Amino acid sequence: MKKFLIISVLAVSILLPSQLLAWGMTGHRVVAQIADQNIKSGTRKKINRLLNNMPVAYWANWPDFIKSDKTGEYDHTHTWHYVNAPGNLSKEDFVAYIKNIEQDNIYKEIPKLEQIIADNVSSVEQKRVALYFLVHLMGDAHQPMHVGREEDLGGNRISVLWFSDKSNLHSVWDGKLIDYMKYSYTEYANLLNTISKDKKKALEAGTLEDWLYESHCLANEIYSSVNNEDRLSYDYAYKYTDVVELQLQRGGLRLAAVLDQIFR
User: Fold this and answer.
1) What's the number of domains the chain is made of?
2) Contact call for residues 145 and 169 (beta carbons, < 8 A)
3) What pLDDT shows up at residue 11?
4) In 3D, which of 145, 137, 92 has the Cα closest to residue 259?
5) CATH number for position 208
6) Model-level pTM?
7) Residues near 40 by Cβ (< 8 Å), separated by ≥ 6?
8) Which range, of 13-27, 121-135, 246-260, averages the lowest pLDDT?
9) For a pLDDT cut of 90, what percent of the chain falls above it?
């Protein structure tokens, strides 16, 4: 089974269109690697046993890869990667809105995944798959366009040029801004992990509702800065690279805190 999954992941990673991958493959691995660099030693030992000593970053994109699965087994998970809300809501209104969404979404699923991993009744395979999703969805929660607006599918319907290539606003934020920096995921994680203990503590603070609202506010700013068919290039990358890097740091450090809580 393990060999089959590894082969499947490698095959799909070659074939799956990059615009379907939230944070892109590099971004999700950066989040996972930062988390791995900040979890407690006891947490790492338990995760290593669960993942058969495979790095957390190796599995960070699995929930995107399985979107190409043709059996239908994971079709119900496709909506887990995001939550939509009207723009420019107050925090109180935003939280009330996402609490009342009937469709499965990232806000509903992250706590469920935490419970599956922590529950002694869960099988090893259930815990393992839940961990794959948790690692991935914690990354998605910090990609602002995954807390976007339903009418444009989180920016997917806002067409832009990225330099001279046709793209859309969602795709720019999923991967193009990260790939612009030309780092491997390990290089980027190592660079972003060079911050003080006090700053790390401040960045990892808050609740899931706080983090999603933070992304909602960033999404509002991103929407206001772009029009359909705009050309985005060096100036856009210069303006938003710091935001992308901060969100990657937040995602990784908060994932580490969540994992330490689960495996305490």
Assistant:
1) 1
2) yes
3) 40
4) 137
5) 1.10.575.10
6) 0.91
7) 260
8) 13-27
9) 91
